[in-house]
C-alpha cells in the first residue's frame, strides 16, 4: 500500500476530526475576509472595517455546521444557506458567510447522484443570488452577487466531478475483481475437465489392456501343459499388452507430474486409422472382430476421431469381458449425412455381464459406460446402449461433423 493510500485510509478513519480541522480553516478564512473592504478607493483594503457581533456569530455557526457535513450533508447545506441569507439581508458591509455554503454544497454534490446534485445546486444558486440581488443592500448588478452565483455553481460542478471519478474508479475495481473471479472459476473448470479427461483415458487404457492380459493369462493356464507353443504365443501377447499399457499409463501419469504446461505428445492421438490394429489385439485374445466401414474416406477432426476410437475400444473390451463363450463382435463406421455413426454389436449370451459395463437400462452404469457417454456428449453427439433382441448388446454412437472442421479431402 502506498503512502497516499495509507494517508487516505487514515483520514477516512478519522473523518470527524478532519471535518473539524476543515471547519476551523473555513472560519479563519471567513474572519480574515470580513476585515477586507472590496469597495475601498484604490482597491480592496485590509482592516477597513470590523465585523459586528451578528456577523461574527453567523460565521462561527456556519463553520461549526461543517463539522457534521458528512453525517447530514443536506441538513448542513440548509443551515449554512439560512445563515448566509441572514447575512445577505442584514449585514452591511457583507461578510463571507457564503463560504460555508460553498463547502456544504460541494459535499452534497459529491455524496449524491447527478440529477439531485444539479437540482440542489440550482436551487441554492437561485435562492442566494436572487435574495442578494432583490433584498441585499448592494445593487443587483454588484460583482459580489455575480461572484456568489459563480462560487455556488463551481461548488456543485466540483462535487459532481469528484463523485463521478469515485464511481468510475469503483467500477474499474469491481470489473477487475469480477474478471479475477471469472479467471479463477475458468481455471477451476478447466482443471476439473482435465481431471475428467485423464480419468477417462486411464480407465480406457487399464480396462482394455488388463482385460486382454487377463484373457491371455487364462489361455496360458489352460494350455500350458498340453500345448506349450500356444502358451508361449499367449505369453507374448500378454507381454505386448502389458508393455503397451505401461507406456500409456506412464504418458498419462506424466502429465499429472508436470508443474508447467505439458509438452506436446510425440505420438498422435489414437483414431480410426488404428482401428484395424485395435481389432487385431482383440482377435489375438480370442474375440473374432469384423469391421465394416462406409465412411467414404471421411477424415474426422482429432476430438471426434479420438472419441470414436475410445468408444469402439471400450465397447469391444466389454464384449470380451462379459459376452460369454462364442462371442463375436461387429463394428461398423458409416457416414450418414452430417454425422458419422458407429455401431458395435455382439452376439454373446451375456451371462457374466454386469449392468455397469454392458449398459443395461437400470441406471447403475459403471465407469466404462459413463466414460463413453461423456466422450460422445462432449463432441455434441448421442450414445445409446442396450440389449439386442435375441441376446447380446448394441452400442450406437452418433458423432456430428457439424461445427467441426474437416479436411479438404472429405467427401460430400
TrEMBL record:
<dbReference type="InterPro" id="IPR050482">
    <property type="entry name" value="Sensor_HK_TwoCompSys"/>
</dbReference>
<keyword id="KW-0418">Kinase</keyword>
<keyword id="KW-1133">Transmembrane helix</keyword>
<dbReference type="InterPro" id="IPR055558">
    <property type="entry name" value="DUF7134"/>
</dbReference>
<feature type="domain" description="Histidine kinase/HSP90-like ATPase">
    <location>
        <begin position="307"/>
        <end position="402"/>
    </location>
</feature>
<dbReference type="GO" id="GO:0016020">
    <property type="term" value="C:membrane"/>
</dbReference>
<feature type="transmembrane region" description="Helical">
    <location>
        <begin position="16"/>
        <end position="36"/>
    </location>
</feature>
<dbReference type="GO" id="GO:0046983">
    <property type="term" value="F:protein dimerization activity"/>
</dbReference>
<keyword id="KW-0902">Two-component regulatory system</keyword>
<feature type="coiled-coil region">
    <location>
        <begin position="169"/>
        <end position="196"/>
    </location>
</feature>
<dbReference type="InterPro" id="IPR003594">
    <property type="entry name" value="HATPase_dom"/>
</dbReference>
<feature type="compositionally biased region" description="Gly residues">
    <location>
        <begin position="347"/>
        <end position="368"/>
    </location>
</feature>
<protein>
    <recommendedName>
        <fullName>histidine kinase</fullName>
        <ecNumber>2.7.13.3</ecNumber>
    </recommendedName>
</protein>
<feature type="domain" description="DUF7134">
    <location>
        <begin position="9"/>
        <end position="166"/>
    </location>
</feature>
<feature type="domain" description="Signal transduction histidine kinase subgroup 3 dimerisation and phosphoacceptor">
    <location>
        <begin position="194"/>
        <end position="259"/>
    </location>
</feature>
<keyword id="KW-0067">ATP-binding</keyword>
<dbReference type="Pfam" id="PF23539">
    <property type="entry name" value="DUF7134"/>
</dbReference>
<dbReference type="Pfam" id="PF07730">
    <property type="entry name" value="HisKA_3"/>
</dbReference>
<feature type="transmembrane region" description="Helical">
    <location>
        <begin position="120"/>
        <end position="140"/>
    </location>
</feature>
<keyword id="KW-0175">Coiled coil</keyword>
<feature type="transmembrane region" description="Helical">
    <location>
        <begin position="48"/>
        <end position="68"/>
    </location>
</feature>
<keyword id="KW-0812">Transmembrane</keyword>
<dbReference type="Pfam" id="PF02518">
    <property type="entry name" value="HATPase_c"/>
</dbReference>
<dbReference type="InterPro" id="IPR011712">
    <property type="entry name" value="Sig_transdc_His_kin_sub3_dim/P"/>
</dbReference>
<dbReference type="GO" id="GO:0000155">
    <property type="term" value="F:phosphorelay sensor kinase activity"/>
</dbReference>
<dbReference type="GO" id="GO:0005524">
    <property type="term" value="F:ATP binding"/>
</dbReference>
<keyword id="KW-0547">Nucleotide-binding</keyword>
<keyword id="KW-0597">Phosphoprotein</keyword>
<keyword id="KW-0472">Membrane</keyword>
<feature type="region of interest" description="Disordered">
    <location>
        <begin position="345"/>
        <end position="368"/>
    </location>
</feature>
<dbReference type="InterPro" id="IPR036890">
    <property type="entry name" value="HATPase_C_sf"/>
</dbReference>
<keyword id="KW-0808">Transferase</keyword>
